Amino acid sequence: xxxxxxxxxxxxxxxxxxxxxxxxxxxxxxxxxxxxxxxxxxxxxxxxxxxxxxxxxxxxxxxxxxxxxxxxxxxxxxxxxxxxxxxxxxxxxxxxxxxxxxxxxxxxxxxxxxxxxxxxxxxxxxxxxxxxxxxxxxxxxxxxxxxxxxxxxxxxxxxxxxxxxxxxxxxxxxxxxxxxxxxxxxxxxxxxxxxxxxxxxxxxxxxxxxxxxxxxxxxxxxxxxxxxxxxxxxxxxxxxxxxxxxxxxxxxxxxxxxxxxxxxxxxxxxxxxxxxxxxxxxxxxxxxxxxxxxxxxxxxxxxxxxxxxxxxxxxxxxxxxxxxxxxxxxxxxxxxxxxxxxxxxxxxxxxxxxxxxxxxxxxxxxxxxxxxxxxxxxxxxxxxxxxxxxxxxxxxxxxxxxxxxx
Length: 406
Known about the structure:
By secondary structure, this protein is an all-alpha fold. The chain has 18 helices and no strands.
């Protein structure tokens, strides 16, 4: 195994930083409405600045990252978000927040492309690649959990914008670590000129790629259905207060993080297809059990965690059985690509993940209106079952791709 601990630590810190920046947009929306007096719809546009910039950068720029260089891309991304964070901390006014989130979106798309592609350079086997992918995605989830806590701590004794002085310091640490981290990119430099937008589209012709696209769409559809609508289920079905329901989301995101760290260990010892199908079967069983054992609503209001029903705890840790699937299937498709094409493949991963997330959230939301919140949660059972079925041909195409490269 290559000695690359410094690279691994740097990649983990980069993901941690961006997880905080990306997953605190809801807090910032609430703050700008109160502090700057902007309308709710105007403040909500920050989500669009973030998401659309991620999609646009992935679509237009991700495939060119090999030409620019992975390490250089990560340095530029960190520098951009550090300057944007300083701008928000130093300048009072709503206009700086759209600049911040557009910068975060573009930088994250390029950062994720560079990080995913770098994993291929510093790992030697499929199991090692999958393990590192799960560990990094686990760190990302820890960052997503930490972000609200950091803001809550800073808001307690200072202005919310001062949080960005702290974040810019953390980003500077990541930048310095990346600056002094050496990364051997000679394997992709020889083929860098082959990278481009058309090369990314050509990848869709490969069976392993389009089966992956379907799997990724289904997975993110599942995760976003839970991530977006689980608080409402907790409130309406279990009668949890808004505060308690929000707290239970920590269990959901925390269980995803924990499962990815566990999968990072197990991936070197158990075949990925066995792990994935086992996790999906458990997620299906938990979801079906909870929905069947609950009714359309609980008239009581639970204001304490100690009063919450056990099924609420069970449903909140369904993320444990979902967490490893996405980094695992992403790792599989990336390791079957030449290293010069992994950046383009990552662009496709980001684009179709965004489409799947939006679709899952919209479908579940629509079902809560047409049916009710309780019955809407029968829907995730469909993509869970379909994903389990799609993993079988996905493994077959992945095995063929591996044989073709040998």
